[in-house]
Write a structure and sequence with these properties.
TIM Barrel, 39% helix, 17% strand
Length: 324
């Protein structure tokens, strides 16, 4: 009988041995927790397609932030639900806009928490697109001017990081110019450098009330078939002054995460998006999977692919499991 000389199973024999040689370690500090902020008080409106996630008034968001901090999750990213939508998404850059109010309140209540603002217009516009529209065409360069106004309003409110997500050509350069020209050289840019026109965003559009009223976003978000384009998009944003890069979605684009990480020496985020979260929740509710094990396996795979930080709706429950 043949006796194997090499026995890799020796190091898998016990939990302690497996942990000792584990190559990828997932921890709560890897997570950025998305919050959907709305006007009002004592408001917590559950999102049907994102079980466990809700639109929150600012006072409720503060409670959520404090829980995240206690669990070791250091960062939040904010999405706003305005009172009134218009063609320009004007609440996004108003001094009293919902996200500007939330930034000020969160930085006062939980000053150590890293508060990131998503920079876009789809939640704020009455047409649901990511900038100024002329008919069914997005005006790229006019939108850059509005992005500059939005980031300045959020920087004045005390935001820690701005994260432009619209895939508008030149957005990072325009934002860097605006921040530096207004005395906010210290505010870093986390660019959604690689954002695909994905089918995994459905639940988010319910959560952020941001579905387009006509057409789609394939003219500015990337074709899911492309990888080399992701590297070109990342290079453009690096050249324009991005401090961090992001790939979105994560799970269906692990190869892209790896390619971007290998090419660029910048911190890399990946967005474990709403559709990915919702599929796990639906399967778990039907008893088809072990939710804890599947969730942690997915998040580990994203980190293993090369992500330094992960935006995920699983952040709090995953942190509880990891802390147990």
């Amino acid at each position: 009988m043949f006796t194997p000389y090499f026995r890799p199973r020796r190091l898998r024999r016990t939990p302690a041995l497996r942990e000792m040689v584990r190559e990828t370690v997932l921890q709560p500090s890897d997570f950025i927790y998305p919050l959907f902020i709305k006007h009002g008080k004592n408001e917590r409106l559950p999102i049907r397609s994102l079980p466990g996630i809700a639109q929150l008034s600012i006072d409720e968001a503060i409670k959520e932030a404090k829980e995240a901090q206690q669990l070791g999750v250091p960062s939040l990213i904010l999405f706003g639900i305005p009172k009134i939508k218009d063609a320009l998404g004007s609440e996004s850059y108003a001094d009293d806009g919902i996200i500007q109010q939330a930034i000020r309140a969160l930085k006062e209540a939980v000053p150590e928490m890293i508060v990131i603002a998503d920079i876009c217009f789809c939640e704020y516009t009455d047409h649901g697109h990511c900038g100024i529209m002329h008919g069914h065409t997005l005006d790229n360069d006019a939108t850059l001017e509005l992005l500059q106004k939005q980031v300045i309003a959020q920087a004045k409110a005390g935001v820690d990081v701005v994260a432009p997500s619209g895939m508008i050509d030149g957005m990072v350069g325009a934002i860097r110019e605006a921040l530096d020209g207004s005395g906010f050289q210290h505010v870093p840019i986390l660019s959604y450098a690689v954002k695909y026109a994905s089918s995994f965003y459905g639940p988010f559009r319910e959560a952020a009330e941001s579905a387009p009223k006509f057409g789609d976003r394939r003219s500015h978000q990337m074709d899911p078939a492309n990888v080399q384009e992701a590297l070109r998009e990342s290079q453009l944003d690096v050249d324009e002054g991005a401090d961090m890069l992001m790939v979105k979605p994560a799970l269906a684009f692990l190869d892209v995460i790896r390619a971007v990480k290998e090419r660029f020496d910048l911190p890399l985020a990946a967005y474990n998006v709403s559709g990915e979260y919702a599929m796990v929740k639906a399967a778990a509710q039907n008893g088809w999977i072990d939710e804890q094990r599947v969730t942690l396996e997915i998040l580990t795979s994203i980190k293993r692919a090369g992500a330094d930080v992960i935006l995920t709706y699983h952040a709090l429950e995953a942190a509880r499991w990891l802390n147990a």
